[in-house]
Design brief:
Layout (H helix, E strand, L loop, with lengths): L4 E7 L6 H18 L3 E8 L4 E7 L2 H7 L3 H11 L8 E6 L2
Antiparallel strand pairs: 1-3, 1-4, 2-3
Helix pairs in contact: 1-3
Length: 96
C-alpha cells in the first residue's frame, strides 16, 4: 500500500521525559497500524530540540480522521500531554 499523506506531530519534550514518551509511542504503534483506518506507517524521530511522530496514511482524509479517533484523543494525547513543554505542532501533508 502506498503512503499518500503524512501526519507529522512535533512535540517539545525534555530529555528527562523522553523515555516515557518512547514507551507511549511503543505501546500504541502496533494498535495504530492494526486498527486505524488507512494507517500504513508510524515512526518516532528524535532531535535534540524535540521529537516527531510521523504517521503515513493512504489518504488525507484518514490522516485527518486519526486526530479525532478514540485512540488519539483518549490514549495517545492524554498520555503524552503531561510530558509536553509546549503545545505540539500538527501538520498534514499530501504526497506529490
Amino acid at each position: 500500500m502506498k503512503v499518500n499523506a503524512y501526519l507529522e506531530i512535533t512535540i517539545k519534550i525534555e530529555v528527562t521525559n523522553r523515555s516515557a514518551a518512547t514507551k507511549i509511542y511503543t505501546a500504541y504503534r502496533e494498535p495504530f497500524l492494526k486498527t486505524i483506518e488507512g494507517a500504513i506507517t508510524k515512526d518516532l524521530l528524535i532531535r535534540d530540540e524535540d521529537v516527531q511522530v510521523l504517521h503515513g496514511f493512504d489518504s488525507l482524509e484518514h490522516a485527518q480522521g486519526y486526530l479525532s479517533s478514540k485512540m488519539f484523543q483518549n490514549d495517545v494525547f492524554t498520555g503524552l500531554k503531561p510530558l509536553w513543554s509546549a503545545e505540539p505542532d500538527v501538520k498534514i501533508y499530501n504526497v506529490a
